[in-house]
Amino acid sequence: MSAGSEAIVPAGASGGPIKVMVVDDQDLVRDGIAMILDGQPDIEVVAQAVDGAAAIRQAAAVLDLAVVLMDVRMPVMDGIEATRRLAAGPNAPRVLILTTFDLDEYVYDALRAGASGFLLKRSSRDELINAVRVIAAGDALLAPPVTRRLIDRFADSRLDPAVAAQLDVLTAREREVLVLVAKGNSNAEIAAELHLTDHTVKTHVSRMLAKTGLRDRVQAVILAYDAGLVTAGQR
Predict the structure, then answer these.
(1) Around Cβ 11, how many Cβ atoms within 10 Å?
(2) Is residue 10 within 8 Å of 132, Cβ to Cβ?
(3) Can you tell me the distance from the alpha carbon of 39 to that of 46, in angstroms, rounded to the nearest whole number?
(4) Which H or E run includes 66?
(5) In whole angstroms, what is the distance from residue 190 CA to residue 202 CA?
(6) Tens-digit pLDDT profile for residues 103-121
(7) pLDDT, position 138
(8) Is residue 22 a contact partner of residue 32, using CB atoms and an 8 Å limit?
(9) CA–CA distances in Å: residue 132 to residues 10, 75, 77, 97, 168
(10) 128-148 burial: b if 16+ Cβ within 10 Å, else e
(11) Distance, CA of 70 to CA of 50 (rounded, Å)
(12) Cα separation of 102 and 66, whole Å?
C-alpha cells in the first residue's frame, strides 16, 4: 500500500493513544479487530457499534475520536450513509472502510461520502494496525493499483463545471501533480515522472490539497475525475 508502506506511529489528538471505533454487524469480526488494535500501546478502541446509526450516536459521545473502521453492508444504516453523516459533522473522525472485496461496488460511493480509504477484511494483523496509524496521521490509505481498478470501474467522468472551478486556484505544476495522483502514482513515481525530488512533490501535493480544501489523496482522485482531468481507463 502506498500510504501504508512506512510504519507511522502518531499520537492521538490529545497526545494520548489513537482513539478508534469499530463498526461491523458481525460480532466475531468486530471483536477480533478490537482485540488486535487494543493490544497496541498507541491505539485504544473506545467504542464498538453494530450499525451506522449506532456509530453516529456513539461517535458524538467520544472526545477526540480519531478513526472509525466502518463496515459497508449493515442493517438499520449502512456504512456509506454513516460515513457521509460523520464527515459532515464537527471534529469529524477519519473513516476507514472495511470491505470484503477490493472491487466492492459500494467502496467508491463511500470514498465520495468522505472516507479516507479502505482496508480489506482479509488484511493481515500488521496491515490493520498500520492502516489505523496511517489514517490517524492524516494520510489516505489507497494503494495505487486499487485506485486504478476502482476508478476504472466506478468513476463518473462527466465534467462538472462547479467542481472544475475548484481547480482555478492551482498552478500548472500543481494541476499536473493532481493528474498523476489521480492516476494512482505514489510520490516517488511522480517525482520520477516530473524529474523532481520527493520532497518537492510532497510540497506540491500538500499545497494542492490545501488550496482545494481536500483532506487527502483519495479526495483528490475523486476531484480529478469529477473535473474531467482524468477519465476511466487512462494511464
Answers:
(1) 13
(2) no
(3) 13
(4) strand 65-71
(5) 10
(6) 556 767 777 788 888 888 8
(7) 77
(8) no
(9) 10, 24, 23, 11, 34
(10) bbbbbbbbbeebbbbbbebbb
(11) 10
(12) 24
Q: What is the mean pLDDT of residues 158-185?
A: 77
CB 8 within 8 A of CB 134: yes
CA 208/CA 180 separation, integer angstroms: 12
Structure confidence at residue 159 as a pLDDT band (50, 70, 90): very low
Q: Is the pLDDT of residue 91 over 50?
A: yes
Window from 40-44, 76-80, 157-161, 190-194 with minimum mean pLDDT: 157-161
* Among the listed residues 185, 200, 215, 232, the one whose alpha carbon sits nearest the alpha carbon of residue 115: 215
Q: How far apart are CA 123 and CA 217, in angstroms?
A: 21
Residue 17 has pLDDT above 60, yes or no: yes
Averaged pLDDT score across all residues of the chain: 80
- Say if CB 72 and CB 103 are below 8 A apart: no
User: Looking at residue 100, what is its pLDDT?
Assistant: 77
- Phi, psi at residue 96, to the nearest 5°? -110, 115
Predicted TM-score (pTM) of the model is 0.66
Position of cell 488550496?
211
Given a contact cutoff of 8 angstroms between Cβ atoms, the answer to whether 75 and 102 are in contact is no
Q: Are strands 43-49 and 94-99 parallel, antiparallel or unpaired?
A: unpaired
Joined grid coordinates for residue 18: 489513537
